[in-house]
Amino acid sequence: MLVRSSLPRLFGASAMAVWPLVLVAPERRHDAALIAHERVHLQEQGDWLAGWALVVCAAVGIGYLNHGASPWWLLLVLVNPWWVVYLVWPSFRLRAEVRAYRVQIEQRGITPAGAALLISERYRLRIGYAQALDLLMAEH
Ligand SMILES: [Zn+2]
Predict the structure, then answer these.
(1) 19 in a structural domain
(2) Sheet harboring 2-4: ordered strands across?
(3) Residue ranges with CB less than 5 Å from ion ligand 1
(4) Does residue 108 contact residue 33 with C-beta atoms inside 8 Å?
(5) Which residues share a beta bridge with 2?
(6) How much is the pTM?
(7) How far is the CA of 139 from the centre of ligand 1 (A)?
(8) 84 lies in a domain?
(9) 106: which of 37, 64, 91, 134 is 20 to 30 A away, CA to CA?
């Protein structure tokens, strides 16, 4: 679901995916390629959440058996595991962005050079421009 919001700007972005929403800054709401980039992240988050639902059910079940009904276990429901891994694991973040920027490039929303520049500067990845460009252009 697409939602106009200036919230992504707080994070220095124009758009962001927070399942089940894609938040897009008002002035970029017609940028189909940017939205396609975010939909890549959204799709992956949805896939992860399907697996996460099993983990939460198991945790709630085990927690119930060991401790009785405890609301603490239910707080796991609030966690978006994709975002946790994205934030703490740079190589996952890099791969996620390469997948999303490839889609944005295919849709002519950004040039490979532009995407490589953003990847090397915006995501705290310690990767150079040339290396980012290589990854974007590699066979996949
Ligand atoms: Zn992205």
Answers:
(1) no
(2) 2-4, 21-24, 15-18
(3) 97, 100
(4) yes
(5) 22
(6) 0.87
(7) 20
(8) no
(9) 91
**How far, in Å, is the centroid of ligand 1 from the Cα of 64?**
38
Distance between Cα 128 and ligand 1 center (Å): 17
**Mean pLDDT, rounded, of the chain:** 92
Q: What is the pLDDT of residue 70?
A: 64
pLDDT tens digits, one per residue of 4-16: 999 999 988 999 9
Residue 120 lies in a domain: yes
Residues recorded for the chain: 140
Instruction: Tell me the pLDDT tens digit for each residue of 45-56.
Output: 999 999 998 888
> How many A from CA of 61 to the centre of ligand 1?
35
**CB distance 45 to 82 below 8 Å:** yes
Count of the separate structural domains present in the chain: 1
Question: What value does the mean pLDDT take over residues 31-43?
Answer: 97
Domain containing residue 97: 89-140
